[in-house]
Amino acid sequence: QAKHLGTHGVQLHDPSMIDRRAADAQLSDDLAGALDRGELHVLYQPLVDLAGSRPVGVEALVRWQHPRLGPVSPAQFIPIAERSGTITSIGLFVLETACRQVAGWDGLYVSVNLSPRQLQEPTLVQDVLDVLARTGLAPHRLVLEITESALVDESAGIAMLSEFRAHGIRVAIDDFGTGYSSLHYLTRLPVDILKIDRSFVAELNGTPEGSGITEAVLRLSQVLHLTTVAEGIETTEQAAELQTLGCGIGQGYLFARPLPPAELLEMLVTTAS
Ligand code: C2E
Ligand code: MG
Ligand code: MG
Ligand code: MG
Prior knowledge:
binds magnesium ion, 9 strands
């Protein structure tokens, strides 16, 4: 009888959820050694001046080539790395790889994602400055991307952003508009760039309703003297509307997917002059 109840108890959980937990635990184990085994690499997606369609910078995006599963999406493994703590070493690997790479691409800056957990590392600012010194990238050519949620009630994290900026490194808010922070709170954040989330870009359709949020963000940026970058531009209509609305920089499959260094370089050569 007791045995029966026990078996029954397990079924209170959705079996697919248990499968997923087991899969996540396996990925977490695999990820712990992935860096040392050379399974991680970095791709670069152009950030394009919407007026001239030329790349002004790149966003560094990590990739994991799992030996059995093939490519695993960062949307899947970054949250796992965040929970286990491996994000600290993965994050520094991406930063150093990207800074070294972009130091050789004159005139471009590089935007690197920071996870919330990295902002809790007391050594983060010094680690970043050490990477710049080792790779020779000038601080004004580095942008650090963080999400709103990483900063809510994190006064230590906010103090770090001010430190970065004091060293000439710029700070961007990623996926802007999808977090929960109030506009009032945002006006006090030490940032330089707002990245309009691609969900708002997808709504652009030439109507006032479609462009409402994007227009509001652009207006806010103007008042606060911030730069805006629109994410996820997939059509020429979206690019044209964003330019008309006064957005300076765009990113998306319309221009290029995240690319390996050799292909990015090729794109730089063909769009030059
Ligand atoms: P994100 O920082 O917002 O990066 C933009 C994501 O949008 C990238 O996905 C990019 O490939 C995708 N994207 C770009 N243009 C388009 C488009 O036109 N349409 C669509 N549908 N998607 C587009 P990706 O590379 O899969 O990365 C997903 C997320 O994983 C990133 O979102 C970021 O939050 C995280 N991530 C990636 N690399 C790193 C990293 O090195 N460190 C940390 N902490 N997070 C990372
Ligand atoms: Mg980003
Ligand atoms: Mg983003
Ligand atoms: Mg996004």
